[in-house]
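User: Predict the structure for this protein chain, please.
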Amino acid sequence: MEHIVFEVGLAIGLIALAGFISTKLKFSIVPFYILIGMAVGPHAASLGLIDFRFIESEPLINFMGRMGVLFLLFYVGLEFSVGRLIKAGRSIAIGGSIYIAINFTMGLLFGYFAGVPFKEILIIGGITTISSTAIVAKVLVDLKRTANPETEMILGMIMFDDLFLAVYLSIMSGLVLSGATSVMGVVTSALIALGYMLLFIIIGRKLVPFLNRALNIKSNELFMLTVFAGLFLVAGFSETIHVAEAIGALLVGLVLAETVHMKRIEHMILPFRDFFGAMFFFSFGLSIDPLALGGAVWLSLGAVAITLIGNYSAGLLAGRSAGLSPRASSNIGLTITARGEFSILIANMGKAGGLLDILQPFTALYVLILAILGPVLTKESKHIHNVLNKVLPLDRIVLGKNAQKSPKPNTEKQQV
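Assistant: Here is the predicted structure, written as C-alpha cells:
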C-alpha cells in the first residue's frame, strides 16, 4: 500500500490501453478489461526477476469495482420504465417472456445435469440468462441497426432482462447472502427482499413530488453530493438487511427516474458509470487465477452451447410472435447472445455467499467467449441465417402457416 496512488494510476493506464486495443481490433471492450486484470493480478505469472504481480492494491480496486456495480445498476434504474414497457406493446411482452423462460430453464437444467448443488444451479441459471445491455446496445449502434424492424423487439427483450434481473437479484440475495438453509428460512429471506423492494418503490413514487422540490438545487456540486449520498446510503442499508447493495442502487434509480431531474442525473452519472464500470471488469479479472480456468473449460463451453441454442430459439419464436421475417428473427437471437456485466455481478454474489469456487473461473471463461462471439455473430447474422436456412426450415418455424406468403415488413419507427 506504500505506492497506492502509483499502482491505481498504473491500473487505470492498463485499462485505457486495453480500451485502445479493443477499439483498434473493433471488438467488445469487456473481455479486454477482464484479460488485463488477469494478466497483472495477484495470480499472475512470476518468472525470476520478472514479476507481473505489480498491482498489490487489490482491495481498493475491488472497492472501486463495487462502486462500478452501484453506478451501473443505478443507471439501469434510471433507464428502466414500466410505462415504456407497457407502451412497447403486447408483442414485446410475449417475446421477452419467451426469452426469459427458454434461457432460464435451460440454464437451470444445465446446472442440474452438471451436478452442482441447488444454490449453484440457481446462480448458473441467472448467469446464463442475462444479456449484456452495454454490449448489445453498442453493437446495434456500431452496425447502424437502430432502425431495423427487429430492434424494438431486441430493446424490449433487454428491458425484460432488466426486470427479471431486479426480481432475480432480490430473491437470490435473500437466499444466498442471508445464509438461510431451511425451506422456511429461504422463503422468509426471499419475501423480505421482495417486500423491501416493493415497499421502497411504492413509498418512493409517493415521495416524487417532494424529491422534485428537494433536488431543485442550482449548484451542480451540491446536486451531485445529494444524489450520491442517497445512492450509497440506500445501497449500504440494503446490504445490512441481506439485500444485495446493487438492488439498493437499482431502486434509487427507479425512483429518481420518475422525477423531473432524471435527465440531469443521467447526464451527471454517465462518466462515473463508465469509469467505475471499467474498474469493475478489471477487478473481476484480478480475482481470477488463470491456472484455475482449465477446470472450468468444459463447463463454460457447455454453457456457451446452450446459450447459443436458447437465444437463437427464443429469437425465432419472439420474431414469430411479432410477425417479423425469418431473417429479422435470426438477428434477434444472434444480437442478444453477448454476456457481460450482469453475469459477473451474479457470480460475485455467489462468491460473497460462499458458494463453489468454480463459479468465478466458469463465469470468466463464459463471459469472455460470449463477449467476443456475440458481436461477431451479430455482424455476420445475414450469412449465418442463409447457412442455417439451408439446413433448418426457418421460414416454417417463424412464419408458420403463412410460410408461403411474403411477410409484411414491420414499418414502425424504431427507437435506439
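Confidence is low (pLDDT under 50) at residues 403-416.
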